[in-house]
Amino acid sequence: MQVNITFRQLEPTDALKSHVQDKVQHIQRYIDRPTEAHAVLRVEHLLHHAEITMKAGRFSLRGRARSEDMYASIDAAAEKIERQLKKHKERVRDHKATHIPHDWSPMPVRHEVLEAPESPAARVVSSSTFQALPMSLEEAVVQLDLLNARFYVFQNVKTRTLNLVWRRDDGKLSLVDVRPAPAARAAVP
Fold first, then answer.
1. Residue 166 and residue 175: Cα distance in Å, rounded?
2. What distances in angstroms separate CA 52 from CA 130, 161, 176, one per listed residue?
């Protein structure tokens, strides 16, 4: 498995690289088909931040942590991924995988982050494009948990529509089912 490490405001050392690779290898034993891992290590306001993202098949896993020690942050981020994997394996034990029709392909989605959305002159700070993969709602919720994210966009295999599932502030999940608007009918005189 390929492991990429990015250092920001931090001197890259062989010891940190080795520690990240050891943690990724430890996590890898829980994953059936690991493909790649990316770690971002940075220092900000005297805190050491570690973010580890691993991809395995259709799933992505992410662990983030910060502390006053970079090694402790790396350990905590790796532990979060491990907990996600254990939780996922428990859910999948009795759950059958969703059958995806052969004529389906991932749907491109664009995500933009706005600066000061309250302001009338809001501008885009960052944007990204990704593929909304076909999956069931249950699989999307598992993916949301695995990524430790606030929202997840996917193609619903039952309705063939674009869906968004997100975790609300109260901890409950909400679902948005995006359907195209009906075609406008010509006005009849």
1. 7
2. 19, 31, 28
Rounded to two decimals, what is the model's pTM? 0.54
Q: Which of 104, 83, 87 is nearest to 95 (CA)?
A: 87
Q: Report pLDDT digits (tens) over 68-99.
A: 999 999 999 999 988 888 877 776 655 555 55
CA distance 51 to 20: 10
Q: SS in 3 state form for the chain? A: CEEEEEEECCCCCHHHHHHHHHHHHHHHCCCCCEEEEEEEEEEECCEEEEEEEEEECCEEEEEEEEECCHHHHHHHHHHHHHHHHHHHHHHHCCCCCCCCCCCCCCEEEEEEEEECCCCCCCEEEEEEEEEECEECHHHHHHHHHHHCCCEEEEEECCCCCEEEEEECCCCCEEEEEECCCCCCCCCCC
* Cβ-contact 165, 173 below 8 angstroms: yes
> How would you classify the pairing of strands 162-167 and 151-156?
antiparallel
pLDDT at 157 over 80: yes
